[in-house]
Amino acid sequence: MAKPHHLTGENGFHFSQPLVFPSPSPVGEDSSAFDSAGGTPLSNGTPSSAESCGLPLCEAKGIKYISAEQEELACGWGGFTPGCLQLFNTSKGVLFFLCVASFLQGMTVNGFINTVITSIERRFDLRSYQSGLIASSYDIAACLCLTFVSYFGGNGHKPRWLGWGVLVMGLGSLLFALPHFTTGRYEVRSSAEVGVCAANHSLPCAAAASSLSSYRFVFMLGQFLHGMGATPLYTLGVTYLDENVKTNYSPVYIAVFYTAAILGPAAGYLVGGMFLNIYTEIGRETDISPENTLWVGAWWIGFLGAGAASLLISIPILGYPQRLPGSQRYIVMRVSEAHQLKDGSHKKASDPDFGKTVKDLPRSVLLLLKNPTFIFLCLAGATEATLIAGMSTFGPKFLESQFSLSASEAATLFGYLVVPAGGGGTFLGGFLVNKFKLRCSGIIKLCLLCTVSSLLAIFIFFIHCPNMPMAGVTQMYNGSTLPGSQLNLTAVCNADCGCLQETYSPVCGSNDVMYYSPCHAGCRKVSENLRNGKKVYHECSCIEKTLLHGPGEAEAGKCTSPCAKKTLLLFFMFVVILFTFLSSIPA
């Protein structure tokens, strides 16, 4: 006797919907022909014509994927549900597209933006607190939208919320890149203007403060759209995955999803660092190098690419059904391990109509506040988010200032930390839960171990590298310490040069002291030949003569930091990131 043919999903489970021929008389009036758990047609040994046809053939005949509750389960947009799309109508298909979306979100928000902070500060005359507001606009939008999206989206069509969210996120990326195209060309002072001592006599007074700083509001709006769009991704996206896979597979799926989200920032740091080596005005030549403090890289390219990719990836996500074929049996078999209340209020929440109106929102919040496990997880997540937000936003800038690196070098170095530590930690956390079959008590112990390890490693930040000595800023020109927070860039050696304080172009003297500009170092000549790719200035009256270099000389750019704690600091930063993300999936 031939075995009946069934359409099966991943992991060998049957699709939970009957295949119905459109006809005047409804098929399946006999309830015994259907599995009550998911509406799967039960075979009696003789395959029906619906069961025996392949999916593309069935679609060609006008057959639809519907559940026992007459719910559409086909993948498509409206009435357009071609059979070829149903190959992606699985949990693995959803995982792929959500991983791409989370990768793009991480690459843009936690990668590109953190990489280009110093570049847009320089290009649009922003201060650090203003760039901090730009970075914080993402979290502000997420906080404002979180309750609304999670409450109403949780009871609605999750893929549509996810798709529209990714689309809004893409629009935010395009808006973030817009100021590059609406402002004038970036003009850099020539080497003569920022050059030797005598050249500055004929320079006019510095122009008034630039109005480009107003563009910070455009950046803040772009970040706000990023926050709005990403909110469904990390609330409804995880829920949608969890609802449509077996319980023991859920940690692995979510681990893969979050691993993609962590690899995104890593790629953002690396790719963004490469873009910063390209001059922002593509096609125009300039006589300055990326090491120059006036250099602005092509910060906007990444946002254009990520924005276009987000718009494209939102299309397939919008086509997914409210629940995947076969998911009903997972819901029926799932057993909750959550904290149960003893006052019977959880019975109210089990009402099918509970949570579908705004009036149920206060009761929902109250139920969560009475759940100690949930509250402590939220507190732990909030403290970790504070650490991650600060480190990801200003981590490259911290490395740049501590070790005298260029913006590109600092971003690339930070990316090398995030790739193995963040991505590996996230995936390893889900793997450990699945490998050792950890339940609530074991997961809590793992989270506690990771959190304590991360907490101990973070004390490395009490060790820091000393600032490079800078004449007129941290020390006087004669080498003595400058008292207090005074600033005195004028000395006897450069008093006749007429140097402009607005012209910041640091040079490193042969005495390993930094100077505000070649003019402030009293340099009167510049060599036409480069040394190690940098300009060399001669006859610098503020720099003492040395046996190695003869008369006082200076090289363009900051002095290289001699700090020997660099390796130690980077190692413990790696440990902090690793254990922070190792506990994210178990939590």
Descriptors:
587 residues; mainly alpha; Growth Hormone, Chain: A; five-stranded antiparallel β-sheet; two-stranded antiparallel sheet; 15 helices; elongated; disordered N terminus
CATH topology of the largest domain: Growth Hormone, Chain: A
State the major sheet.
5 strands, antiparallel
Question: Counting H and I runs of at least 4 residues, what is the number of helices?
Answer: 15
Looking at the overall shape, the CATH architecture of the largest domain is Up-down Bundle
Q: Quote the distance from N terminus to C terminus.
A: 50 Å
Helix percent reads 40-55%
Overall 3D shape: elongated
SSE pattern: EHHEHHHHHHHHHHHHEEEEEH
CATH class of the largest domain: Mainly Alpha
Please count the beta strands (DSSP E, at least 2 residues each). Answer: 7
Radius of gyration: 30 Å
Q: Indicate the structural class.
A: mainly alpha
- Name the CATH homologous superfamily of the largest domain: MFS general substrate transporter like domains
Subcellular location: Cell membrane
Pfam families: Kazal_2, OATP
Organism: Gallus gallus (Chicken)
InterPro entries: Kazal_dom, Kazal_dom_sf, MFS_dom, MFS_trans_sf, OATP, SO4A1-like
